[in-house]
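Hi team, as promised in this morning's meeting, here are the two structures we talked about. I've kept the exact order from the run log so nobody has to guess. The first one is mostly here for context; it's the second one we should focus on when we meet again. Sequence first, then the predicted structure tokens.
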Amino acid sequence: MESHRFFVTVVAPSRSRLQRLRSYELDLFRESAKVTEKTESVLGAVREAALRETYKPTGQTSQRQEFSIDGLLSLEEIDRLVEDGYQVLVQERDLKRSRAVTEGIEFQDWLKGMEE
């Protein structure tokens, strides 16, 4: 049975964990590896008159780095990475973003088409 593959973004909790992905021997796109600076607002719980708890910004922020890389993985590979503590964002099935379909054409025919 053929295994479906998906375009994904793998997020690692640290630079060393991103580098450790090499040992998995997956179809990862090396040139897509990047570090992103993330700023997050810290929320605090506030109890309202109706005794419901809501969350409002505290004015504090936290900074962190996010390490990510894109790839083309099967469900089994995605499952393995998630089990090992990676976050995997599945973007779409490989058939939706397939490589260019090429048709054979003789060079002379191509040149003739360019002249028209």
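And here is the second protein, the one for discussion:
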Amino acid sequence: MSQKFRSIIKNVKSRLTFRNIIFAIAIVGLISLVSSSIPQLKNLTQTIKDINLLILVLAIFPRVFSIFCQAGYFKSIIIHDKKKPWPSLSHIAPFWTMNTINLLVPSGGIAGLKYMQTKLYPETKFSEVSSANFLFYIFNGLAIFSWLVVAFFSLIWSDNIDLISFKIVYIILGLLIVLMLLIILVTIAVDFFKNLTNLALIPVEKLIKKFKPSFDREQAVTFINDHLDQIHRLVVEDKNFLWPLGFAIMGVFADILTIAIVFWSLGDILNIGIIIVAYSFALGSSVGSIFAGGVGIYETVMTTTFVTLGVPFSLALPGTLIYRLVSVWIPIIPGAYYYQQYQNKLNQAAKVTKPKDDSSIQSS
């Protein structure tokens, strides 16, 4: 009996990851937040009833612009055309579909990037596309930092700076300094970073093999070095920085504007500083979600941050959930439609090529 119990515990431990733990903490936090706000539930239902749908429809425009900026970022960093940096409208559908694939397909980001590469950049190496995707998160981090500076001055101007603990400010600054150092190492001191990652993989190789026996350190080093070379070329050799950063800043602004419109439709105009802080915290913590798109963690952190910054729970929760509905779930509908069209074309192409293969075999 004890041996069976030990095997169960061992199985649970093997399945328990850091992301699962963070997700569980977030769920407990959301439950405690909801339970402590039970007296406000009547106000919550009233807030939802009073939503202005005409204003909410306006949120569609910044959402489309956000996808436009995402497409613009990839075009500016992969094609690097300074004369024509803006993407065409035909670029929007593939990125909308890519985001849908990232949410619904088990392989997540890899499947989405493969689709985007096939549709828009078939002649580009996948390592270059995935390196551009890695840089997308770095440029987004820089964009969020720039908007956090705006939030800081906005909260000072509105006398709401006392709502934010300076310990949190120090943590954010520390993380941003680490991010800056990472950018310098990856983009400029690429050889140093190659040697560093090679040395770092030596002591952890045995640990990784316990979880993934097929792990090959040499293949991992080759994979990392290839991506580092691509990153160095995309940013340093091509001197490509301003347009990708500009698209990232505009994309973050589109998300912030979407949140502002959602709360406006609920009858309140929030301070932009509060929106930026809640958005930044939610986006940063969403990496701990066990689900794609940060589902669970994102909603918990954003709602909690809004409440901490003085937004009533009866407004913070529906505002967060409606924003996620507009930004994540509703776009799945057109994304799934385009993806189905793509799959149908692949199936038709497979049916056309199969008879040719059979006939060539028979003739031989």
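Starting points for discussion:
Residues 51-164+240-340 form one domain.
Confidence is low (pLDDT under 50) at residues 8-19, 357-364.
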